[in-house]
Amino acid sequence: MKNKLLFILAMSFILFLSSCQTVKPYQQVNLNDPDMKLSSYKFKKFVTTFQVYREGASGANGGKSGGGCGCN
Amino acid sequence: MKKIIWIFIIFPMLLTAQESKKFKKRVLESAEIDILSSYYTQSGNNAAVTGGIGNEDLQDVATNINVSIPVNADDVLTIDATVSAYTSASSSNLNPFTGASSGEDDDDDDDRPSYTKRAASQPITGSPWVASSGASKSDVWLNATLGYSHSSDSRNTIIASHLSVSNEFDYSSLGGGLNWTQLFNKKNTEIGLGINVYLDHWRPVYPTEIKTYIANGGNLNADFFQGVNIYNQSGFVIDKNSANAWKPQTDKFISNKARNTYTASISFSQILSKNMQISIFSDLTYQSGQLANPMQRVYFKDKPNFYIGNPSDIQRYTSPDNTQVFQLADAYEQLPETRLKIPVGVRLHYFITDFLVLRTYYRYYFDDWDLFSHTVNIELPIKLSDKFTLIPDYRYYIQTQAKYFAPYNQHLSSQTFYTSDYDLSAYSSNQFGIGLRYSDALMDMKLWKLGIKNINLNYHFYDRTTGLKAQIVSMGMSLSLE
């Protein structure tokens, strides 16, 4: 029952997002600003790296998920 | 192995077989180079190599170069290389007794040209609070990654692959990945899927006393231990031939040296309005193999303590005032051979005004080692002018303790798994950062034939409730070949 509810919530959320206002390409000036890019800044690469080494959590941050190094 | 290379390199290239002859905007107009260098330093009192206490001072200098080359209108080749050189007080204490024994030791130190064997009358000292001069105090990590991406004519589909290799003194890695991105809804919606595999390999190094014990079949009068007194908690010399003499619980070398990581990634991005967009993503990760680090010592509270060095410092062993005595390890770190990690992240970016953007990030993480964490990060780029941007940021992190963690000398010898690595303990941290970026879309400034697109200078300070503090300064530059 709980899994069904989570699935319905997830699909509803995705449908909700899809129904958001469609912004045409010529209207995306602000969204195309370099600071609006939906990713971590390139200059924080080594900051993210030391966080992977020093913290128990990893992943979902543009950095390593535990492979490629003797880290967490 | 050849089949893996074929999959990761050739597959995206085959997608370029049928190219349209119509004019289309190139994915990348000209070659670009990103250079990033950083200096990192940390201090703390919970070194894992010395069982959860001891000097954690570490410095690291790293440089990354990333070159993106347009192969044609649709494809980009990426070459990425990183060099990272560190010096660490804690890893130097893999052998805390520099030039220790007068026997035929095989530790790191006698590989150095300057090594002088200790005379039998020379006293031995060592301490978790004092960095050793052993060769293990420094190392270099090298990484190279080759990537290739192909975009469809509509630019709505992007397929990318990469191969990577890494190496340091006790660890090597071979990795690869495939990613697929699809945009739709007039590029308002984006879905991404990816898989990454790392096939890694340890070349294990062990604490000197454990390595020597195993290599000599438990003989406490051979090799490193020859002519060296071992003391009990009361400071008396023990009989090394006694059945009650020091004996580590981990009395075998590691047999399975593989460490593999498999990651399945999914992301969903959506434009919410002309000024706001959101992204939700996850990197489901499964690790298997040798996940414990054999360098890291563990001490048991239900086992007697044994020391080498000056016995007068035994009673203040856990204090930085101890500079002359070292406790022999009861074991090296033992952890399960599997780990399942589930992080879920959200990014929400809002264009507030022409000179102010709000960037927010949240991640929830949990794994089957019972470690749960929350991460919140806020960045506020402020455009001071058309060329300069100031970027303050704040990050808060909190985690629970992994179920196999206990502080120094708190584990029981009856446990199957144990670690005193404070990176797996319960703590929270605050990170403050400030950055300055110079940007020039016209690239008026040049470096030889390369136009300078932007220059970044950043500083971050990290403060953890375990007492560890770190600072990192980074400088980066993006260049474009005209």
The interface involving the most residues is between: A-B, 46 and 91 residues
| Strand segment count of chain A | 0
Q: Give the overall pLDDT of chain B as a whole number.
A: 91
Average pLDDT of chain A: 82
Percentage beta strand of chain A: under 5%
CATH topology-level fold name of chain B: Porin
**Share in helix of chain A:** 25-40%
How would you describe what is shown here?
The complex is a heterodimer of chains A (72) and B (482). By secondary structure, chain A is mainly alpha-helical. Chain A has a domain at 36-72. In chain A, 38% of the residues lie in helices and 0% in strands. Chain A contains 2 helices and no strands. The longest helix of chain A has 17 residues, at 2-18. The mean pLDDT of chain A is 82. Chain B is mainly beta and 482 residues long. Chain B has one domain (2-15, 31-481): monomeric porin ompg (Porin), CATH 2.40.160.40. Helices cover 5% and strands 48% of the residues of chain B. Chain B contains 3 helices and 23 strands. Chain B has helices at residues 2-14, 89-92, 208-215; strands at residues 32-43, 58-70, 75-88, 138-151, 157-168, 171-184, 189-202, 231-232, 258-273, 276-289, 297-298, 306-309, 325-327, 331-332, 338-353, 356-367, 372-379, 382-383, 388-399, 427-439, 446-447, 450-464, 469-481. In chain B, the strands form 3 sheets. A 16-stranded antiparallel barrel of chain B has the order 1-2-3-4-5-6-7-9-10-15-16-17-19-20-22-23. Chain B is elongated, with a radius of gyration of 26 Å. At the A-B interface, α1 and α2 of A face β1, β2, β5, β6 and β7 of B.
